[in-house]
Design brief:
This protein is of the alpha/beta class and 401 residues long. Helices cover 38% and strands 17% of the residues. A seven-stranded mixed sheet has the order 10-9-8-11-14-17-18. Strand 1 and strand 2 form a beta hairpin. The longest helix has 30 residues.
């Protein structure tokens, strides 16, 4: 078996990559392509994430360092509030749902780091930790949603908590609940969206909205994982997604691990594959959705939606309700993160542009609701007109709770 060594310093895993899987230095298997772990029949119809993206074990926060994928698989432990902030800012952990989950546990990391002595000090530390993490990235609303839940959980327990330890247990329970809810919601999104994919379809996706962007199963990729599990045969076209290549590094990795037929394309090839009739459906994720259905996602998504409209291809967004920001009337109010110009001029350590060239590097764009055929949520597929559909769906959900 052909293998290549990949050593990760200061992490929890050194890996050997080969056709049989990725092995730890001591010979243990970190993750294995499904072809080697299942029968040929089962292998065709099943999608399995190789590991949890965000883990909370024995009071410590672990994540997959996604900046190293696909050539190096490394789990890192985040033992300080600043290390959690840095991991979110530098995209070691990314994807709106995963950011929210990591931030919830990050509040716990901040509290444990400070070791508050009483209830009042613990609540103050919860707020300080949450406020600091909120400055890491501005666009993904799940970040602020999760941090608000942690603050609310602390406030709710303040009067009854006998000491700091009891309060810490309560907010830890809330963070675990956020993590578990995300896993359930992603599975529900996959179930509701899978019927959109027919045998023989070509499905295009942009950036990464898979298990690596959530706690387990993904949003946009959950639709594909579930359709694959049900035995449908289709092909996915994954945009590479410049400038950080999340589609090439992460989506292509997840889909090939799941044995889903996947073709990687450059972003500027999307129009051509649509023109050639290879694409029957587009499914992407979202980082924030306004009350009118406008959706912010990784830069380049808006262009894909315009192309899909021009070729009469349905364009769907997959996201849980925690990604909706109903306080924003439209996408015009969604804050767009501006990132380091070096991501464009010196991507992955190699200079590809002159030193003095100006760079514009927005991390996201906003797709207008008029270009979106439907929004796949954990409660079903929402159709236009979105303002009315979103309000009705929320009312029905509140009535059932």
């Amino acid at each position: 078996m052909m293998m290549s060594w990949r050593q990760a310093s200061n992490g929890t895993a050194r890996s050997i990559q080969g056709h049989g899987g990725t092995y730890a230095a001591n010979g243990g298997l970190l993750h294995r392509p499904l072809r080697s772990s299942m029968s040929a029949r089962d292998n065709r119809n099943r999608a399995v994430m190789p590991t949890k993206t965000v883990q909370w074990e024995n009071g410590r926060l672990k994540i997959i360092d996604q900046t190293l994928l696909p050539t190096v698989y490394r789990e890192i432990t985040l033992d300080s509030l600043d290390s959690v902030w840095e991991a979110i800012k530098t995209l070691r952990v990314r994807g709106a749902p995963a950011i929210g989950v990591a931030a919830a546990f990050g509040v716990l990391v901040g509290v444990r780091e400070k070791s508050p002595k009483d209830v009042a000090d613990t609540i103050r530390t919860v707020y300080e930790s949450a406020d600091h993490l909120a400055t890491s990235r501005p666009t993904a609303v799940n970040l602020f949603w999760a941090l608000a839940r942690m603050k609310n959980a602390a406030d709710a327990c303040a009067e009854d908590a006998q000491d700091a330890a009891v309060l810490l247990q309560s907010i830890e329970k809330e963070a675990v609940a956020i993590w578990a809810e995300d896993r359930r919601l992603c599975r529900a999104i996959g179930e509701h969206g899978q019927a959109l994919i027919k045998d023989g379809d070509g499905v295009l996706t942009h950036c990464n909205a898979g298990g690596l962007a959530t706690s387990d199963y993904g949003t946009a990729l959950a639709v594909m994982f579930r359709a694959h599990e049900l035995g449908r045969r289709f092909q996915v076209y994954a945009d590479e997604t410049r400038p950080l290549l999340q589609g090439a590094r992460l989506t292509a990795w997840e889909l090939t691990e799941a044995r889903i037929d996947t073709t990687l394309i450059c972003d500027n090839m999307a129009a051509q594959v649509m023109k050639e009739g290879k694409i029957q459906l587009v499914v992407v994720g979202a980082d924030r959705i306004a009350a009118n259905g406008d959706a912010a996602n990784k830069i380049g998504t808006y262009g894909v939606a315009v192309l899909a409209k021009a070729h009469d291809i349905p364009f769907y967004v997959a996201a849980p309700y925690s990604t909706f920001d109903l306080e924003l009337a439209s996408g015009e109010s969604i804050p767009i993160e501006q990132r380091d110009p070096l991501e464009v001029t010196n991507g992955f350590g190699r200079q590809t542009a002159p030193d003095d060239v100006k760079v514009y590097n927005p991390a996201f764009d906003v797709t207008p609701a008029r270009l979106i055929a439907g929004i796949i949520t954990e409660k079903g597929v929402i159709r236009p007109p979105y303002k009315e559909s979103i309000d009705l769906s929320r009312e029905v959900s509140d009535g059932l709770n």
